[in-house]
Structure formats: structure tokens, C-alpha cells
Design brief:
By secondary structure, this protein is α+β, with helices and mostly antiparallel strands. It folds into two domains: about 210 residues; about 80 residues, no CATH class. Helices cover about 25% and strands about 15% of the residues. It is built from nine helices and twelve strands. A two-stranded antiparallel ribbon has the order 1-2. It has a two-stranded antiparallel sheet with strand order 3-4. A hairpin with a 5-residue loop joins strand 5 and strand 6. Helix 4 runs parallel beside helix 7.
Length: about 350
């Protein structure tokens, strides 16, 4: 197993290509005033103790786009608030249903949909609202993406665009925490102690927690900040019976380390955008197999690496379906970093 994979050809391949972790012009949203939250939001979850160093249990869980097997719409129709239906169940912006916007962002950016649901509640109390709330900015600029003071970019108006903006921001932060430097732009990283804006020293236990503190460097235990995110995450996960992600990562999926790629000889190419699960190989038969997904043994600078076969499985964002040489001769179509 390679620890970690750092391919010399990647810098050349990525030259001139906009990486997924590009600059995102978005302002961090503040906690919603207590008046728009539900009373249950501030009741401490009693199923697990709060750990400021582990806001979510694992990066794998944070990156699980299929955490809601019954779908986001089912969650919105039957919320944890006494089973009431959120107005978001029927709301749409720019022709996109809120539930579809959340699930699409979850899949494109490989982020658990519970993240967007928890943030929508903690930022503007939207999950608990039965009717469209006023002022409209609570919905149309829910995460304050594109806003500075009282001025907001009309091009980012709409719940769907706000969800996409939040997803890009969090994926960028997570990619930095998972990258070669293992730290975000603000200095948050696994095992790296740092003080939050409210003066609490935090040492993130996983990359997802580092990304959450990069987005909002506040603990605010008992009333807001990342404590509130943790509390909502726990309550929502408990309501739908989500027990965390079970390792089903595949070749080409994002990763933060070799443990994220649990198949035989799995390893993580840490300097690919968002990390990329792969494995060393001499022939395609060396790569892990799956009834629904395939991989090829691509020859990259004379070395064999398992790559996602994009003729049967679409490439994720930040990757392109290109023709590559195959170890032993011939060529195949596979996912590699690119537009």
C-alpha cells in the first residue's frame, strides 16, 4: 500500500484547471436568533456527550451523500418537530424543489444531506417553519452566500443557489483539511490545537470537524455555534435512524486517507482534488470489482493506478472522463482530475 500517494504527473495535469477547492465568495452565516429556532433545538441531546473536538463522528459520515434512504423530501414532510411538515417540502426556487437542491448538492459535492438540513435550521430556523417565513431573506439568502452587510448578490438568490454555495464552501474547506498540507486556510487540521473566536481551544479529531471550524470558528456550547450544529446533527440523525456511514467508498471517490478506501490495497491520492481512492495495479484484474461499478488499471507515467471506468459510472465534480493508456497495452475511458 502506498502511504500516501503523491503523483508527480498531477501538477502538470492540473495546470490551468480550476480545482474544486477554488475561491468561493461566500460569507459565513451567523446563528439564527433564538426566536426563530424551535424549543427542541436547544435541548441538549442526551444520547451522546458533546465533544467540541469531534462535531461529527467521522469524515466518512460527513461525506455520506446517501444518508437518507427515504429521501430528503420524506424528512421535510415528517420533521423531528412532532412530525410537522416543513414549508420546504413544497417550496422551490429557480424552478428547483428544496429537497432536490439538497440531494443534488449532497451527491455533487459528496456531503451528507443532514449537514444542509442542520445548517438551514441553525441559520434561519427553516426546517421547523410550517409556512414561508418573513423577511424573504431568511430563505432566499439563508446561508448569506454572496452577502456583505445588507447587500446581497442577486445572482445567488434562492434556496437552491444558497445550498450549492454552502456545499462548495464546505467541500473546499474539507479538501484543504484532507489535502497534502492537512490544514485549512484558517489553520484548522486534525490534531492541531487552535482557539475559537469565543476563546475555546479545540483540537479537531477528524477532517470534517476541522472544516466545520473553518466555516464557523465558534463553539458556543449550549446556545449556538458548532455546539448547535452538533446538537441538530445528533437529533436529526437519531430521528431518521442514521448510524453513520458504513464504508462503501469506491475507486475514484473522495477520501482523506487510506482508511477511507476500504477495499483491497485501497489508498488515497491526497493531492487529487478532494482526494481520490485508488490502488496500485499491474493489470485491470488487480483492481477491486463491483457489480455496478468498474475500474481500469491506467498507466500514468509508467505506473499502474486503478481508475474509475467512466463508461459505466459518472465522474464526480472536478474530474473528467478522458482516454488513458492501460497497463499491458490498449486504452480505456477513466476519470481523472479536470473540468
Amino acid at each position: 500500500m502506498l502511504h500516501p500517494v503523491r503523483w508527480p504527473w498531477l501538477p502538470r495535469l492540473l495546470a490551468g484547471v480550476a480545482a474544486l477547492a477554488g475561491v468561493v465568495l461566500a460569507a459565513c452565516a451567523k446563528d439564527a436568533p433564538a426566536s426563530v429556532l424551535q424549543a427542541d433545538d436547544l435541548v441538549p441531546f442526551d444520547g451522546a456527550p458533546f465533544d467540541r473536538n469531534a462535531i461529527v463522528e467521522s469524515t466518512v459520515a460527513f461525506s455520506d451523500p446517501y444518508a437518507l434512504p427515504e429521501g430528503v423530501l420524506a424528512f421535510l414532510k415528517h420533521t423531528p418537530y412532532g412530525g410537522r411538515t416543513s414549508f420546504l417540502a413544497t417550496y422551490q426556487s429557480n424552478g428547483v424543489l428544496a429537497a432536490d437542491a439538497i440531494q443534488r448538492a449532497a451527491e455533487v459535492y459528496q456531503i451528507n444531506p443532514l449537514v444542509f438540513l442542520a445548517r438551514a435550521e441553525m441559520d434561519q430556523g427553516l426546517i421547523g417553519e410550517q409556512f414561508y417565513p418573513l423577511p424573504p431573506s431568511r430563505v432566499e439568502y439563508v446561508f448569506r452566500c454572496g452577502c456583505s452587510g445588507s447587500q446581497c448578490d442577486p445572482g445567488l438568490a434562492g434556496f437552491d443557489k444558497q445550498v450549492d454555495c454552502l456545499a462548495r464552501t464546505l467541500r473546499s474547506d474539507l479538501s484543504q483539511a484532507c489535502g497534502v498540507a492537512r490544514t485549512t486556510a484558517g489553520g484548522w487540521g486534525v490534531g492541531r490545537g487552535a482557539a475559537t473566536l469565543d476563546g475555546v481551544v479545540v483540537t479537531p479529531a477528524n477532517e470534517a470537524t476541522a472544516a466545520l471550524y473553518q466555516y464557523m470558528p465558534v463553539v458556543d456550547e449550549g446556545t449556538g455555534g458548532n455546539w448547535l450544529f452538533w446538537n441538530l446533527w445528533q437529533q436529526y440523525a437519531n430521528a431518521v435512524g442514521y448510524g453513520g456511514a458504513f464504508s462503501d467508498k469506491w475507486i475514484g471517490d473522495p477520501c482523506c486517507g487510506d482508511s477511507s478506501c476500504p477495499y483491497a490495497n485501497g489508498t488515497c491520492a491526497v493531492n487529487a482534488p478532494g482526494g481520490m481512492c485508488t490502488a496500485a495495479c499491474n493489470a485491470t484484474g488487480d483492481c477491486a470489482t463491483d457489480p455496478q461499478r468498474k475500474a481500469v488499471c491506467g498507466s500514468l507515467s509508467g505506473q499502474g493506478f486503478c481508475l474509475r471506468d467512466c463508461t459505466v459510472d459518472a465522474c464526480r465534480q472536478g474530474y473528467a472522463c478522458v482516454t488513458v493508456a492501460v497497463m499491458g497495452g490498449g486504452s480505456a475511458r477513466a476519470c481523472l482530475p479536470g473540468k
